[in-house]
């Protein structure tokens, strides 16, 4: 069965600092990978996705993620964090062999210090 | 509509009562999904519709949970004999076709509290 691990439950960074959120997945074939962001009381907003091709994908709000098959990872990065980035971030895996579901990690809560 | 719409946004109900949660997907999206998100956790898959039929209901936790999509658009998630453990955010999502290779868009959720 597929699974996603987000090792960091909470991360605090200073505004303007760089950010990397870790995501490791387990999936039996080529995965589809996603990062979603959830602000308090809000639904999930898609930041970026990887289906195939270039392993470095660009998303909205200045985020990017890199698919590394050898490490089963899909880490999210941003070079300079803004206070408005404070939210919960979820990594998810799906794919042709996944049937009809996305499997989500437990999330990483990002706090931004002024 | 512009996005996935869910009603009610908040629902408080007493243990043992029946609850209905409604989802209106993005216009033209044939695939519709329900997920459940408990406090401090990631969303968990409940059920997937392709058109009017439930193509995969493997995530429904037990027979108290049921969902319909009679005309292939709006869907209703129904929970009978609610229990305190059912308290969660119920997220609806839709995509243009099936999930493989298609982006899934989520609504803002229905927050259910069972007291």
Q: Would you mind describing this structure in some detail?
A:
The complex is a heterodimer of chains A (114) and B (115). Chain A contains no helices and twelve strands. In chain A, strands 2, 5, 6, 10, 11 and 12 form a six-stranded mixed beta sheet that branches. A four-stranded antiparallel beta sheet of chain A has the order 3-9-8-7, with no helix packed on it. In chain A, a hairpin with an 8-residue loop joins strand 10 and strand 11. With 114 residues, chain A is mostly beta strands. The model of chain A has no long low-confidence stretch (mean pLDDT 92). Chain B is mainly beta and 115 residues long. In chain B, 0% of the residues lie in helices and 48% in strands. Chain B is built from no helices and eleven strands. Chain B has strands at 5-7, 10-13, 19-24, 31-37, 44-50, 53-56, 65-68, 75-79, 88-95, 105-106, 110-114. In chain B, the strands form two sheets. In chain B, strands 2, 4, 5, 6, 9, 10 and 11 form a seven-stranded mixed beta sheet that branches. Chain B has a four-stranded antiparallel beta sheet with strand order 1-3-8-7, with no helix packed on it. In chain B, a hairpin with a 2-residue loop joins strand 5 and strand 6. Chain B starts with a strand and ends with a strand. The model of chain B has no long low-confidence stretch (mean pLDDT 93). Classes of the chains: A mainly beta (114), B mainly beta (115). The A-B interface holds A 4, 32, 36, 41-46, 49, 51, 90, 92, 94-96, 98-107 and B 4, 33, 40-45, 48, 55-56, 58-59, 91, 93, 98-101, 103-109.
Secondary structure layout plus pairing:
The complex is a heterodimer of chains A (114) and B (115).
Chain A: E1 3-5, E2 10-14, E3 19-21, E4 24-26, E5 32-38, E6 44-50, E7 56-58, E8 64-68, E9 73-78, E10 87-94, E11 103-104, E12 108-113
Parallel strand pairs in A: 2-12
Antiparallel strand pairs in A: 1-4, 3-9, 5-6, 5-10, 7-8, 8-9, 10-11, 10-12
Chain B: E1 5-7, E2 10-13, E3 19-24, E4 31-37, E5 44-50, E6 53-56, E7 65-68, E8 75-79, E9 88-95, E10 105-106, E11 110-114
Parallel strand pairs in B: 2-11
Antiparallel strand pairs in B: 1-3, 3-8, 4-5, 4-9, 5-6, 7-8, 9-10, 9-11
